[in-house]
Every structure is written in C-alpha cells, then in structure tokens.
Design goal:
alpha/beta, 1 helix, 3 strands
Length: 66
C-alpha cells in the first residue's frame, strides 16, 4: 500500500525531509508552493480532486496545526 505524506498549512512537501524518506508520494496541496488554488469553495470537490492524484489504496499521513 502506498504512503502519501501531506504537508500542513503554509508548508511544502519538503517539510517531511529527514522524516519520510520512505514516502511513496508527497502531495503539494493547491494554493501552496506556486500551485494554483482549486477554483471552487466546494469542500467535496476539493477532496475529490486530491483523491484523484493519489495512488490506489494509499495511507495518508498528514500534519495540521488546527
């Protein structure tokens, strides 16, 4: 099963450097690091767009300040 590491608010995938060398995927979230935000306020549409980027059957590892 793939492991996808997701960065926290105002961070980049590089925040996992030194922690997650074994990560199969590091996702750059919309609106971060020069990536355009998604053109929607619909939370479900955002989730669907992110899920479409994942490898099948991924474990998600994330970080949040809130």
């Amino acid at each position: 099963m793939a492991r996808c590491f997701i960065h926290g608010f105002a961070c980049l995938p590089s925040m996992w450097d030194g922690v997650a060398e074994a990560a199969d995927q590091r996702m750059l979230l919309p609106g971060h690091g020069g990536r355009a935000p998604l053109p929607t306020d619909d939370f479900c549409a955002v989730v669907d767009a992110l899920v479409a980027e994942l490898e099948a059957e991924s474990h998600l590892i994330g970080y949040s300040l809130g």
